[in-house]
Amino acid sequence: MKAWKIVLISLAVIVLLVAIIGGIVIGSIVYPQPLVSGEGDRRIVCVGDSITYAQGVMGSREKDSFTAILSTLVEDSTVVNYGLPNRTLLSTGNMPYTSESHYKKSLAEDADVVIIMLGSNDSKGINWNAERFAEEYEALVSSYIKMDSAPTVYVMRPPRLYREVVDEGDGNNEIIKGEMTDIINSVAAKLGITVIDIYSVTDGHPEWFADGAHPSAEGNRAIAEEIAKYLK
Description:
Rossmann fold; 6-stranded mixed beta sheet
């Protein structure tokens, strides 16, 4: 076989391998397996977007996600991280959480506690609809309250967003701080559940967000410590 043909075949093989490996890596982020931390009897299920997933500590999420840290702070616990990057609570959003298998799997868990934090991606101009968000927030939370294991359900106010709004694809801190907070508090009061205020915990700490949106290891620890106050 001529040398140039060998070179072309070799390049084609390399391109194919890069595509396969890249697809696996991207797939593991977009559709990750739930991260399980701890081995205790108290099963804590965490539902959310990239902040729950721990995109800000991608290389060390097994120890630096707030869910992993939480498992070390709450005695005799197993914490299951069902976070999915970029997902919205809104069914009309660009990537609805309720369309994913993670949602169905989390509902089938034998959970003692469920912690829900969605909304950051819903605040984007391309997604936000206050009336629909209120309706669908109540429906989603109710679906966890009605789980067979009858868990204690907590909802979390999303953290402070430190990014400027450039276009409709950007999250909007003013929506998170205002309309969204009012809706979360109203739904929680109606359903008789507790709100964990992560916005207030992270407000004034831009140093915890390298990209302005996803908490660092230090930010995740602060979030985990706040949650643990409610679970001890």
